[in-house]
Amino acid sequence: MTGRYARRYAHLVTMPTTSPAFADVTTSDSALRRFLHGLPGVDAVGLEARAAALGTRSIKTSAKAFAIDLAISMIDLTTLEGADTPGKVRALAAKAVNPDPTDRTTPMTAAVCVYPDMVAAAKAALGGADVKVASVATAFPAGRAALPVKLADTRDAVAAGADEIDMVIDRGAFLAGRYLETYELIRSVKEACVREDGSAARLKVIFETGELSTYDNIRRASWIGMMAGADFIKTSTGKVGVNATPANTLLMLEAVRDFRAQTGIQVGVKPAGGIRTTKDAIKFLVLVNETVGEDWLSNEWFRFGASSLLNDLLMQRQKLSTGRYSGPDYVTVD
After folding, report:
1. Which of 56-70, 102-116, 245-259, 284-298 has the lowest mean pLDDT?
2. Most buried by CB count within 10 Å: which residue of 37, 265, 314, 329?
3. Residues in contact with 310: Cβ distance below 8 Å, sequence separation at least 6, in sequence order
4. 270 catalytic residue (yes or no)
């Protein structure tokens, strides 16, 4: 973040992110547009070059073992299909709690992520295990529904026991420049995450970066999400052609780093879609370590939305442990 930008907006971005946060900025679309378009432009070549360079880092075997366990603990194990059944969700929950039945030292995953109507089944299957139940909401994945429908979707999931909500922004509104509408949607969903007892589900805001077209748009969406109270900002639904990439994740990591530097408020990051191998996961962990540091190296602040990744991590973990490559027949098929 440039010194000019920090000085210009210091009186705004040092305010808390709960209402009436950023009141001067969010009074109108024009005010919010001035703020967002005042953000420093993204050097696309530099961003991609840095992401690529960090991806070439090699780590020692002992560090690899730590990284594999850390990556397993950061996975949101997900099933988001029309054919999902309570039985499939129970099987997914069992795998989240005990990813490798042959090795009880294997960490549990961070969460299981399901549609709202499967939250209760997931919650019951997990029992008291230290695995969160996340639910997509707000007419996932397209987000094409009226606001009352999106809020009802969220409230249903929270009432059923969801610990976390993964919402999607209205990309059409954002791309049309209706930034305040996007901000207010996130704020409304954030409020719908609050339970009757005052506790709240954590909110992950999905931008669908593959549809935002430019890095500048990803940076602007990141700031809208953080100002509106997102607990996590998330790249993608995993349902489009371009999902998480090292470059777009690096950009979002830089955004949360700058946001905390200005506000003292930490926001998590979740790359989702397209991360399938242990090598991929380690590249992303290097990005986290080199960009935002150890404060984000836990599942409290960084997640992988990549269910297929788990099996490769388990196979690589078995190889480090036994010296033999087990192959896909030694892990369960999701």
Report:
1. 56-70
2. 314
3. 72, 75, 77, 95, 99, 109, 331, 334
4. yes
- The residue from 234, 258, 280, 283 that is catalytic is 234
Q: Which of 76, 163, 166, 231 is catalytic?
A: 166
Contacts of 109 (CB under 8 A, 6+ apart): 72, 73, 74, 75, 76, 77, 95, 96, 99, 131, 310
- Parallel, antiparallel or unpaired: strands 202-206 and 76-78: unpaired
Establish whether the linkage from the previous residue to 116 is cis, with ω within 30° of 0. Answer: no
What's the distance, CA 183 to chain centroid?
Answer: 18
Catalytic: 234?
yes
Output the CA–CA distances (angstroms, integers) from residue 224 to 54, 102, 151, in the order listed: 27, 45, 19
- Residues 6+ positions from 68 with CB-CB distance below 8 Å: 278, 281, 313, 316, 317, 320
